[in-house]
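Task card 7
Instruction: Convert sequence to structure tokens.
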Amino acid sequence: MYRDHVFTNTFTVEVNGVRLRVYDSARERGYPPGTVLVFLHGSPGQISNWKHVIRILKDGYRVVAYDQRGYGLSDKPEKVAMKDYIDDLRDILRELGVDEGSAVLVGHSFGGMVAQEYAASRRVRGLVLIGSTTRISVDIIDRVVWHLPPIFWRRILFTENPLTRRVYRSLFFSRATPESIFTEFIRDNKEYLEKSPPHMFRYLKYFKDYDASEILPKIECPTLIIVGKEDKVTPPSESRLIHSLIKNSRLVEVEDAGHLILYEKPRLIAELITSFIESLK
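Output:
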């Protein structure tokens, strides 16, 4: 198992047969009653993806983040389903004493899928979707990882080498993003990706038939949708579709940002979230 050098002040909560690593800023300081931000990372992400955004926001708001089942330092079952993630989120909130009516869910990519599913059936205070999607786009790399033994793809796709550096740089970041930010992302995730079990990289195959088009119109809470204009993984067209399907929503498309906008524009993301929360009062 790898060691996370970014988030060290974490603890474990056991729910639904798995142990999840959790960060709760309320363990560091007190907060008056009010909004609680709950962060849900993407796939194959971990809570360190939120490190800059959380650092900015935790002075003003209680912040909760956790490694979703299968990722980061949480347990990694062989199979997963959307219901697992929904149940985990529900029970994490209960364990931490967070009332759903005070929770603003902030989901990135796959975490956005979980957040929007949750908000469609439960009454949360607000919803922030960053690079979310209505459906999983399956490409040739997905098919290779899902169907071939790890010996054929592990070293090529998920270890640091010249190929992965080129692919990750092009796929996840804007052309305008400084190299130092890309290098920081590699440093934060190198050990994690190289030491995680092969089946972790296959979780999205269980969502290949996912389609959020029917559940999104059921979301009634105020919703902020953010996407990088150069996002190649969950392109702006997906966020525009989500915006059209969620009645009470606002869409912000960010210049010079790709899929990992959390690394590229954390201060802007924090400012947008803060403004959104203030509009809920």
